[in-house]
Design brief:
globular, 124 residues, binds heme C, mainly alpha, Cytochrome Bc1 Complex, Chain D, domain 2
C-alpha cells in the first residue's frame, strides 16, 4: 500500500532528524529556543502554564499543584541543571518530587537539555 510506504519513509526521516539533534547539542548546553517549542509540543504548559506560572488548566486539577517559577524560581529553587534534567526525563519521583510530574522517556537527552535551558529562562 502506498500509504504504508509513505509512513515508513516518514519514520526514516524522523529518525534522521532525531540523530542529528542528539549529535548537535552538548550536554548542559541546551538551546532555549528549541526548548520553548518542545515545552509547547509536550504539553508541559497544560500543567505549568505558558509562562511557567504553574497555572495550566491541568495543573489546577492536581492535588500537588505545580509551583510558579516566576517568583524566585518556585520549585526550581535549589535545583541544579542535572536535577532539572532528571525531573523532566525521569519524572518527579526521580528527584523526590510529586509523581504528578510525569516522565518524558520519549525525549532525547539533547531535547531534555533544550527544555532545561528554556525552563531556566522562565525562572525569575
Ligand atoms: C500532569 C501535570 C504536569 C505535566 C504535564 C508536566 N509537569 Fe512538570 N511538574 C508537575 C508538578 C505537579 C510538579 C511539582 C512536583 C512537586 O513540587 O513535588 C512538577 C515539577 C516540575 C519540575 C521541577 C521543578 C518544580 O517546579 O518542582 C520541572 C523542571 C518540570 N516539572 C518541568 C516540566 C516539563 C518540561 C514538562 C513537559 C515535558 C512538564 N513538567 C510536564 C506537573 C506536570
Amino acid at each position: 500500500m502506498s500509504a504504508w510506504r509513505g509512513m515508513a519513509a516518514g519514520m526514516v526521516a524522523l529518525m534522521a532528524v532525531g540523530s542529528f539533534t542528539v549529535g548537535g547539542a552538548a550536554q548542559g548546553k541546551g538551546d532555549p529556543k528549541a526548548g520553548a517549542t518542545l515545552y509547547k509540543n509536550n504539553k508541559c504548559a497544560t500543567c505549568h502554564g505558558d509562562t511557567g506560572a504553574g497555572d495550566g488548566p491541568q495543573g489546577q486539577k492536581l492535588k500537588d499543584k505545580p509551583t510558579s517559577w516566576l517568583a524566585g524560581g518556585g520549585g526550581l529553587k535549589g535545583m541544579d541543571d542535572q536535577k532539572i534534567f532528571d525531573s523532566v526525563s525521569k519524572g518527579g519521583t526521580a528527584v523526590g518530587k510529586s509523581r504528578a510530574m510525569p516522565a518524558a522517556p520519549k525525549l532525547s537527552d539533547a531535547e531534555v537539555w533544550d527544555i532545561v535551558a528554556y525552563v531556566k529562562t522562565l525562572a525569575k
